[in-house]
Amino acid sequence: MSRIFSGIQSTGNLHLGNYLGAVRNWVQLQHDYECLFCVVDLHAITQWQNPADLKASTREVAAAMIASGVDAKKHIIFNQSQVSGHAELAWVFNCVARLGWLNRMTQFKDKAGKNRENASVGLYAYPNLMAADILLYKATHVPVGEDQKQHLELTRDIAAKFNNDYGVDFFPLPEPMILGTATRVMSLKDGTKKMSKSDPSELSRITMTDDADTIAKKIRKAKSDPDLLPDSEKGLEDRPEAANLLGIYAALSDTPLDDTIAKFAGEGFGTFKQHLADLAVAKLGPIQGEMTRLMDDPAYVDGVLKDGAERARALSEPIMAEIKDIVGFLNV
Ligand code: TRP
Asked: Is-above-0.70 flag for pTM?
């Protein structure tokens, strides 16, 4: 069976974009693949994290996966730092990947910003660790958002160079799975900006812990425009807020955007927002309830992560042992 690996950063404030773009798709995939879903805390510290917050966010992300319907018995949910192979293999890949390859990574440029000299070395080497996450399990398929495609290509380059340098046919070249239509969820306050955990306005995002009233209020207060809703996708050009809200409706209702546009063509935002709020509450409310319950029971969540880490270690240890042998590390 094909094996899936995917990761999500534990930096807190999981929002609708994380749900629609990642977690919800994982829930679908678990029927057809063997899956490992990882809370990537090693990646999280490439930028400063308050230690207490990091622990809380790791539990929050794990709770979100469980509450959304990932089956932690059939599949594996764990946090990256519990399986030492990730860091070990990342080091090997630091020695396989070339500076020139990493210099092309757009995410590093975005995250490092103007003050590149002050970015951590870990932020620069981030893609090598991501390659290690995937290849430590010889995963064949990797569901990711559009923004991670470049890192996936790098992973394939690393796998190919390793195989070639050592004259082995060891690592598979993993396939990206770019899923979902409305995976780009934008800010509720500015349809041109991605929904983000770091936006200072709470009203810009729906988080996975928002209760029904909060969800409804945020949708009511979402930015709109004075026009009626259009009858075709073309009518959404230059209307980023309308496009975003209709996209969210389409994603939450699992219908194509075309059908959603047809459904609300000619309506005002008032009516449409009411429908959207009802739908969002119906879909997200139960997940939020379950998540809140799980976050009040950290011992349970820790138990799931511990069990996941044990099983992840069992899968990765024989692979890591082979890698060490291929590279020429003496096993004494
Ligand atoms: N870099 C990914 C993101 O920001 C998270 C991630 C880390 C990941 N390791 C991974 C995703 C391995 C897929 C596979 O979304």
From this structure: yes
